[in-house]
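User: Good morning. I'm curious how magnesium ion would be positioned relative to this chain. Could you predict the structure with it bound?
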Amino acid sequence: MGGGGDITPTSIPSSPSCSSEVPPEFAEYVAISPVCDDEASDECCDCDDAEVEALYFGRRLQDRLREAKDFIRRYKPGDCIEGAGGTKAGDYILPEIATLLLVGPRGAGKSTLVNRITRVFDKDDDPFAPDRAQVSRNSKSYGTLLLWEYPIPRNSTAICIYDTQSLSSNQQNNFKMLQQWMTKGISHAETTTCFSRDTDEGNKTKHIKPLGRQFSFLSCKTRKVNFVIFVVDGVSILDGIESNKKGYIDILHETFMYPFLSIGDDKPVVVVTHGDRLSMLQRAHVQNELAEVLGIPVQQIFDIPGSDDYQTDLAILDMLRYCIQHAEQNLPIKLNYLLEVRGRETLKNAAERLMALDAVIEATIIFLCIMILLLRFSDKLLQL
Ligand SMILES: Nc1nc2c(ncn2[C@@H]2O[C@H](COP(=O)(O)OP(=O)(O)OP(=O)(O)O)[C@@H](O)[C@H]2O)c(=O)[nH]1
Ligand SMILES: [Mg+2]
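Assistant: Good morning! Here's the predicted structure, ligand included:
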């Protein structure tokens, strides 16, 4: 799994003989050992070892998952501020809600990702809750048209993700649209009709405007984007590599490099979706290609398949944690803190200067004393 995930599942289904001790929800990660019989006592030992290993693996995964989920559930803005240089959360301008923005080409899986992220928490809260974001089921549908805020988990007041309309093939429009979102902020149910897809997708724009008006009664808070999640379709990337057609990758590269998408020095996190249509090898290939093209470490790229399993849940939680931690590392510091620090620094500098002056005065006095003593001594010598 990409990013922080380091657990490799076995795809072999578990057998009742060897998985009886393993929590059922982790059965899919359990390695299978041969069934024990009297003639193969050596294999029985292997079976025990494998069982213990599987149990340990399942427990470790369970612990990591619980810890990662708790982190997101308990999080409130300011929690990850490390206090470098003696700073504390109160010294920073904290967002009311940490705001993550999804950016990506058409059909990259942004809305699918919103639903997949939500499901991680719904499993505990409400397993039968319906999906939230509408996915574009086929090429004829318009895709997401409005900026839409989704608290994560559903009832959260600490983290929200914004689903957005897709990037278009017109890079000038993409530039203006993203620059506006990143510099002026974003708000729920906002349309971006001035950057609509009229140039490349004809009269679809007509459908955007009425929708925008429909939701205009909602006056929503404008949020500053705290971190960007760049969503890409792994299958399109692989197609591009294999057919040597660089179009998709070039647009990704150009967009990814827009300076305003970075928060401080941190470029967006990249999520590769593919809906389980790629093999492990192909996924690794796509991840390496992206790391090279975008100039980021593979740890910043999270491979999130469509499958509903615990390892994907962990990748999602790791990705969210990455965003939150990096967002907090770049929060602006309050002016009064700066003034306080500046004031303290100025005082310290003044004190240092005075100390230095003190040393000079001391040296001068000593020098003068020596001179006086020498003069007196020479006086006495002359008198003799
Ligand atoms: N790329 C991708 N598509 C998936 C995945 N899982 C399902 N799909 C299907 O791919 C289509 C596009 O998914 P969406 O999530 O609507 O894509 P989007 O990025 O929100 O697209 P726009 O709203 O048009 O920008 C849908 O038909 C999904 O059902 C996945 O993991 N990756
Ligand atoms: Mg969408």
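The chain has eleven helices and eight strands. Residues 4-41, 198-205, 208-214 have pLDDT under 50 and may be disordered.
Let me know if you'd like a different ligand tried.
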